[in-house]
C-alpha cells in the first residue's frame, strides 16, 4: 500500500509486476478493487499501477469541489512521482474521462490509451439529455448509498448467476464518502474535451459494452474523430465490462498492449508518447 502527495492530498496507489507501465484508473464510486480480475493477468507481463482517484477508495477526500482536470492532474503527478516513461493508461467510465483529459493536456505522458465505456464529454444536447442529467443529479442526492447500490447491482448484473457481482456492489458502494461521491458526480456533469481530441495521437482502443448506458454508435462517432483509434464491442456486457466479461476484456486489452509494444521501436525511435 503506497501513497504520494499532490496539492496537499494524499493519494493511494498499488503496484504489481514488472515491465512497461500500465496505469489503471477506475470510475465514479469505485476504487482499485474493481480491477481485481485484471491486475493478476496484466502483472504477468507489465508493471501495473492502480490508483484511487481523489475522493475514492483509500485516497483522501478533501472537502472541496472536484474536476476531471484536477483528477487528471493527480494522475500526471503520480506518473511524475514514479518517474515513469510514457504509460499505457486504461480508464473506465469516469476513469476514461480522466484518460481523455490527460491525453489532451499531457499527451507526452501516454504511450497508449484504452477507454472503456466512456466518452470525451458529458453535455446535454437535447431536452431528453437535460432531463436525464437532472434526474441522476437529483436522485444521487436524495437516495442513500445503500439504495443506490441495490439499484446499481440489479442494473449492472441482472443475471441470476451474477449474484456474486451484485454482492460486491452492495458491499463496496456504501463505503463511499457521500460528499466526495457527489462532488465527483458534479465534476462529470458538463465536462468535455471533444473539441480537442485531435491532440490524442497515440494508439487508442475504445472498448464498449453492447448494452452500455450510451449506444455503440455514439462511441463510433468520437472514435472517428481520434487520429489513431479503433472501436471494440464486447457483447453480453453492461457498464462494468471488466467485471462481467473479464476474460474477453483481458484478452482484448493484452492483445492491444502487445501490438503497441511491438510497434513502438519502429514507430518512433525518439519517443513513444502521443
UniProtKB/TrEMBL annotation:
Sequence intervals crossing the membrane: none
Gene Ontology molecular function: any one: hydrolase activity
Keyword Hydrolase: yes
Domain AB hydrolase-1: 21-135
InterPro entries: AB_hydrolase_1, AB_hydrolase_fold, AB_hydrolase_sf
This protein's UniProt keywords: Hydrolase
One Pfam family matching this protein: Abhydrolase_1
This protein's GO CC annotations: membrane
Protein name: 3-oxoadipate enol-lactonase
